Amino acid sequence: MADGETGPCDPDFSDLPTMIWVNTLSRLDLKTRYKVSITCSKLNEAFHHPTLWSRMTLYLIGNMTNYGWVKQSVVPARNMQLVKHFGKYFQNLTIVISGYLDDDFGNWNNLIAEVANKCRLESLKLRVGTATSVSHYEGKRSCSRNLIPLVNFIKNAFRLKKLHIVSWPMYPRNLENIDENIFEAAMLNPKLKELEELSLFCEDASDWTERQPILLQPADTTNLVHHFCNLRHLALRSPMVDQGLLKALSSRGRQSLQRLHILVNYISDDEAFQIPEIPDKVWEEFSLRNVGVQVALTILSKAPLLELCNLLKPACPVHFLTFMEYSGCDEATVQYITDKYKHTLAGFESHGKGGYVELEREIVTLVENSPNIRNFLYFGKISCSNVERLAELRSSSWTNFQVLRSSVYVEDEDNIEGRFSEDEVVVKTADGTYVMVSVLKKQLREQQELNAENRKLEMVSRVSDLLGYKWTPSLKIPKFS
């Protein structure tokens, strides 16, 4: 290029609209987002845009116990700054406090109280401390100053549509105080009558939870749910459910429920954690009043089929069934589900690795006979051929298709140990040479492992073609929180 001649102009990204930069920054982690924001005024403007801070998750650490033995409460300085500068923009807020709240969080509570008066929350998810059980009553109750600002979010809410309470301190002395009782606060706020989604003490299927938590009684739960007549989605634990709740959800003047999620929390020797008996007639009335309603059941721990049948009545419109890792899904249960819900079931998940090689036959039969299943997760043992068979049943129509890599096996593998007697030390091979049995076994195992790996790669390729995207089995079960 001749001297003095200029090439094409470099693009000037500063002319891009602010919202494009906001969208770009939203895809970065917080630390990187901040570093980018100090490079120029344009990006700094985008960094302070309210839209960028509408969704936020804040983490705090409480004490390890509520007996006062170990003090370890931590409020990250970063969270303090986030709340101070951007709290007024929060619309979808999640607060996660691990451990116990018996020590005052100090200035954090003052900041949260201020934000509760300013922000316009549309959804709120609270995981406040370790789920309370009777054993915790012997220790200190939660500090009032830690709870009151959180309750104020509910008291001051006027746009809230979604409320998820994963855990909340259920100490009697806390609940007796109206300023610390989040359930009473929700009912006393007339602006929450438009609440559309309510979840109480429910976890995701990949998260473990306390098996014997203190919960709201069925009558209190019914009273709470009856108050919110515009609910579209409701999630509860089974000890909170009874016929009265289903009848309340079937009453006139309510918005039709779209989804009812029940976390089945069964303990054989605890009367408070028996599975409630819901007659067919009640389910029929519930389905008639809430046309198209979907019932999702998540089984927390092992429950006999006889007990599950208290809920799993033929008239129950079961849409989704999830078995958590320690729920012990068995053949009889899968066969029952296939028989009763093959026309309504759209999703099936079993997170337990288990040892039921024979269960895969029932799983394949379930999917074969349930034409609406589009969401499938199975972490039990399953052969390459059956993985391919299941993938082929829906092909590209699957919305979720997962098996656990370590649970996939190659069928008809040769039993190497059975080919040699215990007395054999040296054997003659096909080419006439003599080889020590231990050496030959090692060679055969290595070849078998290579063949198995090639068969699994073939399976992955086949399933990918069927699903229409690059598919791989899950490497590990998600870690519990």
Mean pLDDT, nearest integer? Answer: 89
Low-confidence stretches: none
- Indicate the structural class: alpha/beta
Biggest pleated sheet: 12 strands, parallel
Instruction: Please tell me how large the radius of gyration is.
Output: 28 Å
Q: How much beta, percentage-wise? A: 15-25%
Query: Helix content range of the residues, please?
Result: 25-40%
Number of helices: 16
Separation of termini? 62 Å
Shape: globular
The count of DSSP E runs of length 2 or more, i.e. the number of strands, is 16
Please specify the SSE layout and strand pairing.
Blueprint: H1 18-25, H2 30-37, H3 41-47, E1 55-61, H4 77-86, E2 92-98, H5 107-118, E3 123-128, H6 144-156, E4 162-167, H7 172-175, H8 182-188, E5 197-200, H9 218-227, E6 233-237, H10 243-249, E7 259-264, H11 280-289, E8 294-299, H12 305-308, E9 318-323, H13 331-341, E10 347-350, H14 359-369, E11 375-378, E12 382-383, H15 384-394, E13 400-403, E14 408-409, E15 426-428, E16 434-436, H16 437-467
Parallel strand pairs: 1-2, 2-3, 3-4, 4-5, 5-6, 6-7, 7-8, 8-9, 9-10, 10-11, 11-13, 12-14
Antiparallel strand pairs: 15-16
Helix pairs in contact: 1-3, 2-3, 5-6, 6-8, 9-10, 10-11, 13-14, 14-15, 15-16
